[in-house]
Amino acid sequence: MSLESPKEDWFEPPHGAEKIWIGIALAWCLVMFLMMPYWHLFGQQNTSGETFRVSPRDFEERVDEFVEANQVGELNGVPVVEPPPGGDAFLLGRMWEWYPVLKLRAGETYRIHLSALDLQHGFSLQPLNMNFRAIPGYDYVLTMTPQEPGEYTIVCNEFCGVGHHLMVGKLIVE
Amino acid sequence: MNDQEGNNPERPDGEVNKPEGEVAKVKRGLQALAGGWRKCDTTGMPVCLDSQFFIRVNAVFAVIFLLIGGLAAILLALTRWEAFNLLRTDMFYRVLTLHGLNMLIFWILFFEVAILYFTSTTLLNAKLFSRKVGWVSLVLMVVGAVMVNWVIFAGQADVLKTSYLPLLAHPAFYLGIILVAVGTLVAVFNFFATLYTAKRDRTYEGSIPLVTFGAMAAAIIAVVTLLHGAVVMIPTFSYSMGWTGEPDPLWYRLIWWGLGHQSQQVNVAAMVAVWYMIATLSTGAKPINETVCRGAFVLYILFINVASAHHLLVEPGMSSSWKIWNTGYVMYLAVLASMVHGFTVPASVEVAMRSKGHAAGIFGWLKALPWRNPAFSAALLSLIIFGFIGGITGVTLGTQQINIIAHNTLRIPGHFHATVVGGTTLAFMGVAYYVVPLFFRRDFVWRRLARIQPWIFAAGITLMSFGMSFAGSMGVARRTSDIAPAEEAYGAVVHFFLAMVGIGGVLAVLGLLLFVGLVVATVLFGPSNVGRPMKCWGTAVDLGSKGAVRKGKGGSHYTPGTVVLVGIFLTAFVVYYFANWRALADVWPVR
Lengths: 174, 591
Fold this sequence. Notes:
The complex is a heterodimer. Chain A is of the alpha+beta class. Chain A has 2 helices and 12 strands; from the N terminus they run H-E-H-E-E-E-E-E-E-E-E-E-E-E. Chain A has a 7-stranded mixed sheet. Chain A has a 5-stranded mixed sheet with strand order 1-10-7-4-5, covered by helices on one side. The mean pLDDT of chain A is 94. Chain B has a domain of 207 residues: Cytochrome C Oxidase, Chain A (Up-down Bundle), CATH 1.20.210. In chain B, strands 1-2 form a two-stranded antiparallel sheet. In chain B, a hairpin with a 6-residue loop joins strand 1 and strand 2. In chain B, helix 3 packs across helix 6 and helix 12 runs antiparallel to helix 13. The interface between A and B is large, with 81 and 105 residues.
């Protein structure tokens, strides 16, 4: 029994069903392991490894330059910005807004630079349910290709103070 | 206390009278203790009184923190249930911080220290290494836990359990956590020192029992875990005091999760040890193959050390190969270990049941299990919830790419409430149905209520976990006081699932309050069982010669029922896993 010392010479190889189960379980673990590199080769959705160190203030300046150069309108007081198709876009999370509103074209691929100014924030694109982290000091480049046109919501899903639940932004796809 | 002269009493699993050799062994163990011990009236095992004291005190504190965390839980459940949205925004995060720390750290750690003391003394006929060290550990842990709770109540630490930098709490918050961690390390030292002195004084023969081995695995992982805690918490404390600069927020997350996730692996190892213990106490099960069971614990020790990685899958700063290697290769060998235990525990029970004569068909033995024994039902429900809900979702959501459609949504708490609450907490509740009668020496009051308590708690947690998982797959964020501003994007149907979270949460807390009520009432007013065996909760009946169906296949490896059960488990796992890849293929291309 499990509460007493085992008999001497307790070492024995697994037998029967137990042995088969260990084999099946190991095989399944390997399948799950191989699925990740497989998806990098043949799948479309992979997390980016492209990151640059940037001070939060410098990133904020880049965002401002980007907004100034590409602003096409305004939505609820936040500038709407249309980056050149295939170009770089900047998105900043700060207490408690996503800045600016990006206007993208379906089928075009953009390099979206994501970062945070003050605290950690969570980029959660709804209703698609795609989630990435925004961390101050890191410029995280997500190379994304929007599909269906429409107005999307960016929810913050990392706790960032009392206004956290109000941190809701927009993203427009045409 | 001097009742060591009694006869060998009946054991809870129905075995009467030990063979001569074992009696001699126990006697020798008792002599070695030379005072400061008593003989257990139920099992005949020696109980070190120092150890008994610290088991009691740690269990009492554990239950106090469980109660605080539970009261917080009911407020949270009624807030996320949008029809009530009970708490004000700032209070929600304060109560969430309170809930996380009391449940995940204090309740669990205090109870685990009690388990460490039990498995290293009673099971080895040994005396606790040092009472002084026990006191140091206890004082550090209690002071730290009180400090953390005080600073949270004072509103100076609304940073949630993870306290991600640059969020900053009052220095007392970090200092309290450091004190609890150091106190726990001291208790772990006491455990290892007890193992050493027991081995040196030959209080037992051969290898340590499997349950002690499992506890040792938990203790080894705890050391690695708590060192991570020191590495991350000390610079953060120093920063909060203004002594040094701000640690990098990404570095903080990497090391913090070396604490945060590995501590869950401590819980898993301790929980599995408890499964084996309760299986033995309630059905007389023996491990089919000690090598396999112990080997699986070794896999936990070796391969869980980088579990931190799967919290950083949608994070900047780490390459994909780093993420895949650390979550995939290393984590899955720890997954293998859990899948092995998921077979060996039910298989050992099946073998025990068949040998008692319950051998009809594939599942005949299931019917004869001691379902009315609350420890047994708690362990069984813990195994099912941990495996089918917690395990399957955890491995799937921790897959590098699938994490894109799960990270920081309610799917994550949906997963870990099934592992650490439906799994670990429920298993610990189960073992309390033996700990209280054996160490507080009082039989339970309201035994009928005790028999249904695990079922209420399990039903609540399962319902809540499902609600969270479904709401999360529709995008609902975790750690959010109110979804109204984002409601349109989620769709109206999430309200149904959030109501499920609320109802399940309230039900689970009722199960928790019932547990706390039963334990407190028993410790204070339960009938004493000093001088007689504890009142039996019910064990598997041995049909003996009446068990007619002993013909045909048999033996210690014949487990067709378990084979079917793990087959169902694997099917569910494969379906859920690939359904998630399918869902992932529907979102925008990203790289």
